[in-house]
Design goal:
Elements lengths: L1 H13 L6 H14 L1 H17 L3 H11 L1 H16 L1 E4 L2 E4 L2 H5 L2 H6 L21
Antiparallel strand pairs: 1-2
Length: about 130
């Protein structure tokens, strides 16, 4: 149940409908392990807000409007999706290189991450085909 709620919350927070299932699960378990109590409260509040809200966006707005702890947790979730890095109490951890390369930031700005060219060595000296 919480996994489906986390998927729904992630779609609202990121604006991306097509989030990868394996990444959803990975981030779900990471956040749940690090913020167990706060995460449970967030999921419960989100579920309750969905019942009384006009939209999913309104349900999220109600979460952040009155609770600083939930607001910080939501920021952590957004940063995880967009940067591939986990931020916890003045500490930043890149989970795996794959998370960095698959971060939503790169899709949003239509660019590749630094260090990942997508081409063979020397490809840059040739004019792009597209």
């Amino acid at each position: 149940m919480q996994l489906q709620q986390f998927r729904k919350l992630s779609v609202v927070l990121t604006g991306f409908e097509n989030l990868e299932e394996k990444i959803i699960k990975k981030y779900f378990f990471k956040i749940k392990a690090e913020y167990s109590k706060e995460f449970d409260i967030l999921m419960l509040q989100f579920e309750e807000n969905l019942k009384i809200s006009v939209s999913e966006q309104e349900a999220v707005s109600k979460l952040v409007a009155h609770d600083e702890i939930l607001f910080e947790l939501i920021k952590t979730i957004i940063l995880l999706w967009y940067s591939g890095e986990f931020h916890k109490r003045d500490k930043t951890i890149t989970l795996e290189a794959e998370d960095y390369y698959n971060a939503l930031l790169w899709k949003t700005i239509h660019a590749h991450p630094p260090g990942l060219s997508g081409g063979y060595f020397g490809y840059w000296k040739y004019k792009p085909e597209n």
